[in-house]
Amino acid sequence: MFPSLPGAERRTLTADAKAGFLVSLIALPLCLGIAAASGFPPIAGLLTAIVGGVVVSFLGSARYTIKGPAAGLIVIALGAVTELGGGDMLLGYHRALAVGVVAGALQFALAYFRTAGLGISMSKSVVHGMLAAIGVIIVAKQLHVLLGVSPHAHETFGLIAELPRSFAQMNPAVALVGFGSLALLLIWPKIAAGPLKAVPPQLVVLFAAVGASLALGFPHSGTVNLMGQSIATDPKFLVALPASPLGGFAFPDFSVIFSPASVKYIVMFALVGSIESTLSVIAVDSIAPDKKAPADLDGDLMGLSVGNVICGFIGGLPMISEIVRSKANVDAGAASPRANFFHGLMLLIFLVALPAVVSLVPLTALAAMLILVGLRLASVKEVLHAREVGRDQLALFLTTLVVTLLTDLLIGVGVGLALKIVLHFVRGATPKSLFAPKVESRVDGSSATLTLTGEAAFPSLLVIRKAAKALPEGVDTVAIDVSRSRIVDHTFLSGVDAALSGRPALKHVVVGHEGFSPQGRHVHATRLKDA
Fold it and tell me: Which of 519, 494, 504 is nearest to 469 (CA)?
């Protein structure tokens, strides 16, 4: 296939091309669906993934991550389009693009000052509560799309309250394709055998849904007879793409960029996107076949920021390092960032060569994919896990979830983090012990001990990370001594692996908390020193 390359390099390039192609098949419908759910034109999602692959792959991208639009940013994007447009969705879209440009510039600054590692100190329960809220919002919005009904409400609880009306007024043909797509997504991984196991369920749904849209006459306005009923069909139920890819380019409107609403969404895009992306990179590093090459978190964020600025100027959504597609990339045998490049290249080919086919994809099938994503984000398992870790973590999870649903992501996360700090103060922490921890390092041959003074809480992860990076190269094991702490919290215990991700070969153990009282049944439950 690549005759001029050495054998090993040829095998690597072939593996990357294969992985990129397989991931592009998963990404194609998700990019379309995420864009449509965000209030952006469907082509915007493809533009983002194309830039994320073809451009960002060469800008310090983490080795195995796939860059593109993410379901976790749907709520922010749709909020920006709706609020900044004041009811005019097209105007809101152009103003949201301007927000994306400035948010990308802010991410560049965060990367320049090497702050990407801050993401490891985020409370896991607060992050999961935020993601669960996003999941609820996605499901509440996309169920109406799946039924072929336009709801009157815009807020989450209003959308949920309108569901009985939408079920009563649903378009049976649209709902049939939607529920069929949802069922196929769930059962395909269980029934596929042999070589079919390698076929992504999203691709199966894509072909089945396109066939159904043709059979039911969706490309034409009119009616179709379905089980004795006359059902309305309309191209509005399908993905709308411009005749030419160049027609999908749009440009930002900076006219209200300094308004309080714009600033709010700039901060949300930059912070939530950076945190999600950083956590995804760390998670992918943990499953990557090459454990000796940890990603440069700041370098990855810098490349991502450039991609986001470009996307904002051409009409795309903000991007992150997306965890589901990145895991699929690793599973498909990717060997380098070129897999991300091939993923973007294949999407570009689909967009240029097959726009007529892509335009036959029913929105209800994309809604089914997003509903499944939302259900996984808002899984009952997350609530049960938080309860197992401890009542404190359940309180953080539920508080973030409820406040986010009632207000927005920024307030929800802020209230969750504030509650976490209050809980630590109630348990005896002081501002100095919580926010100014210190680490003493002692090296003995190939072993080292990092003794923490202050609370073993989320701020301590950053000083542990810095101290671990400073250890001599010959050190291969480290003991993290927390005996001087009064609190060893869940974020610290669950985040130590990520804090040491810069030294992947370093074996570690947390010691000194053996006599502390656990606040839950989980191994990472918060532990308090007995008085």
Answer: 504
